[in-house]
Amino acid sequence: MFQLFDLIVASVGGMIFSALRDTVYVAMLVSDCDECGFNDLGKLLFGGLIIALLLGVGGSLLWRRMKDKQGSASEFVSIRNDERNV
């Protein structure tokens, strides 16, 4: 059973790595220019960092809003009796 699980995980990991490698090759092919220097790579890296941060913050805000819309039914149970019988 463990061998089957290992085989599945390895094949999925291989597919992800292959897709990532192909994406990097396409990005290199598209961004290939003769006048690009080392400074342009720094700008691209900084721009990618900004985009990743914005996507992360936007995704977390979207996740939080979706979580709030599902209902805020609290599972809290109080053991205090608010009614005071005198």
Which structural class is indicated by helix and strand composition?
Answer: mainly alpha
Shape: flat
Query: What is the tally of helical segments?
Result: 2
Estimate the strand proportion: under 5%
Indicate the low-confidence ranges by residue numbers: none
Question: What share of residues is helical?
Answer: over 70%
Average pLDDT figure = 77
Gyration radius from CA atoms, angstroms: 25 Å
Reported for the largest beta sheet, the result is:
none
Order of helices and strands: HH
Give me the count of strands: 0
Measured distance between first and last alpha carbons? 67 Å
> Number of domains in the coordinates?
2
Question: Which features would summarize this protein structure in a list?
Answer:
2 domains, 0% strand, mainly alpha, single chain, 2 helices
What does this protein look like?
- By secondary structure, the protein is mostly helical.
- The protein has 2 domains: 1-32; 35-68.
- The protein contains 2 helices and no strands.
- The protein has helices at residues 2-30, 38-69.
- The longest helix has 32 residues, at 38-69.
- The chain is flat, with a radius of gyration of 25 Å.
- The mean pLDDT is 77.
Strand and helix layout:
Blueprint: H1 2-30, H2 38-69
Q: Can you describe this structure in just a few lines?
A:
The chain has 86 residues and is an all-alpha fold. The protein has 2 domains: 32 residues; 34 residues.
